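Homework-ish question, so no full write-ups if that breaks the rules, but can someone show me the predicted structure for this set?
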Amino acid sequence: MEKKGYGPLWSLLMSSIAFCGSMQYVAITLLTAVFDPLQAFLLSLMVNARHLFYGICMLKKYKKLGPVKNFLIYVLCDETFSIVSSAKVPEDIDRKWFYFWVSFLDYSYWVVASVIGGFLGSVITMNTRGLDFVLTALFAVIFTEQLRKADSRISALIGAACSILCLLAFGPQNFIIPSMIAILLVLTIMKGRLKGSFSESIMGGAGASSETAAEVNEIAGAMDSTGSSAIRTSGQVNATAVIRESEVAE
Amino acid sequence: MTLTPLQTIIMIGAVALGTMVTRFTPFLIFPDHREPPRFVTYLGKVLPAAVIGLLVIFCLKGISLLQAPYGIPELISVVCVVLLHLWKRNSLLSIGVGTVMYMILIQFVFI
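A: Not a homework solution, just the prediction itself:
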């Protein structure tokens, strides 16, 4: 955002209020165009349509959690969804607080890192190209876990196959909503044949030191020259940090 | 900055509103005290795995198969993540190695 003439305070506002990952990129271009809030609203609806699915998935897990529930929904992003839906809540921990901390840490890493990016963006010049692969790798890991389990294997493959077909048919800008519709259709047709138990054991294993995760986070926030891609990168790295959190919790 | 601060705040608000509509709608339609229909419960079970499939493709959507490097760095790195994960089943290890591998590939090998 720095490059477009917006200071760190604007990064803070954008990240803390809108908190919507890739849509914040789009928003930056909107901020430099003609003032058109309705267009911004509609575009945001479309880019974020996948959140509808997250909500449907979390209906049961987020049931009867009191006032905290509203916060959990407010910050339900890609990273938090992937972790909360696949991590097993340790038995001796209240699930409400487990969900809260995963969500809250994801949220605050993102917001803090965007501000750091806004301040330090132009100072640090290390080449971070490719660091955003962290997010791809995180999803690939969770995907692999789904493939290992017979119950979720078919759903996972349906999701990937529908998305690839729609990507080829509609192109990278417009394939999300067609993919969602295709997935819904196929899952509806397959009803009765799918058991669908989402893997709940992926977050086991050895955890790295908390300092490392924190460092990665800070670096990610700081090193980039636009501030906007700091927002993105840090958001992705915080996913890893949160995995570590859930490992600590376990 | 081409917009005034007030206009900027309104724009941020509009983006936030759009996002929140997508996040809150399912929970508003099916609040705690209302049992969702069986079909929605079914979706709640099978959808997460499918959405992860969608997210993987979503991350890889920028690849061009017709232009160099034809998605080769992404392919190598994803295969590396998957194999490493099947072998060691350590999330952080798989993610870390995969990412470093990808950074090396696109910064030094497939420039």
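Now go work out the reasoning yourself. Hint: Residues 35-109 of chain B form one domain.
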